[in-house]
Amino acid sequence: MKTKSKAEEEKRGRGRFRGFLRTLIALFVIGLIVIAIGAGFFLQQQQKIIRSLEASIEALKMTTIPLRFMVLSRSDTEISARFKFYNADSREIASFERSWKGSELYIDSLVVPLKTGALVFPVRVFTDAVAPRGGTMLLNYYDFDGMPGIYDSASQDGQKRLMLKELFTKLKASEGLYGTNTTGNPGSRLLNYFGNAVHDIKQLRQFEIGTVYSLVIHSYGGIEIMSE
């Protein structure tokens, strides 16, 4: 009698274990489904943002001028210049003036390619004697509460403003403006869904002191430095 009871108890134990195992597998499968649904929703939202930004590119002017600068002085060892930034309505929004070691000026911009064009963001200024990472960061001058001022306009709608803020956040993170702590930043990975931004460096060797130069941005992503 004891032997039969023990066998039944072992059978019930095996049944409970199998039930527990089935429950565990079911929970694991449900977890995978939830993760897949969440990832799909996130991807869908990112794709909607990209499509909206691409549509916005078509509404931009063929050329814009987010930055003008004037060389104030130059020697064999030092160069000084004044920079001014403009929004999409061509209104001045920020400026600065400073000098650097060196005699040749470089302007580094980030070009974000989209299906129907590109967005361009001036990133830094450096010289032949100053490495890019040691140059002057430009993003901060047109950062208005996370909004890239060079793309702001009085007619800007709220949705596009939020999209540009998200993209700008990713750009700033990619340039290390958050330091090593990127916890909680949507830009901790470089433009996962916007496409990889590429650097476009323009060098200005021959110039005239006192002449105004413009950084001309074409809607397809081309960049030129032109005298006015």
Distance between the termini: 105 Å
Number of helices: 2
Strand content: 25-35%
| Oligomer class | single chain
Major beta sheet, strand line-up? 3-2-1-10-11
Average of the residue pLDDT scores: 76
Q: What's the overall geometry? A: elongated
Rg over C-alpha atoms, rounded to the nearest angstrom? 27 Å
Q: What low-confidence regions span 5 or more consecutive residues with pLDDT below 50?
A: 178-193
Could you give the count of β-strands? 11
Please give the share of residues in helix: 25-40%
In N-to-C order, the SSE pattern is HEEEEEEEEHEEE
Structural class: alpha+beta
* Main beta sheet: 5 strands, antiparallel
Description:
It is a single chain. This protein has 228 residues and is an alpha+beta fold. It is built from two helices and eleven strands. The strands form three sheets. A five-stranded antiparallel sheet has the order 3-2-1-10-11, with no helix packed on it. A four-stranded antiparallel sheet has the order 6-5-4-9. The chain is elongated. About 7% of the residues have low confidence.
Quickly describe the structure.
This protein has 228 residues and is of the alpha+beta class. It is built from 2 helices and 11 strands, in the order αββββββββαβββ.
Question: How would you summarize the topology of this molecule?
Answer:
Blueprint: H1 2-59, E1 63-74, E2 78-86, E3 92-101, E4 105-114, E5 117-127, E6 136-137, E7 143-144, E8 147-148, H2 158-174, E9 198-204, E10 212-218, E11 223-227
Antiparallel strand pairs: 1-2, 1-10, 2-3, 4-5, 4-9, 5-6, 7-8, 10-11
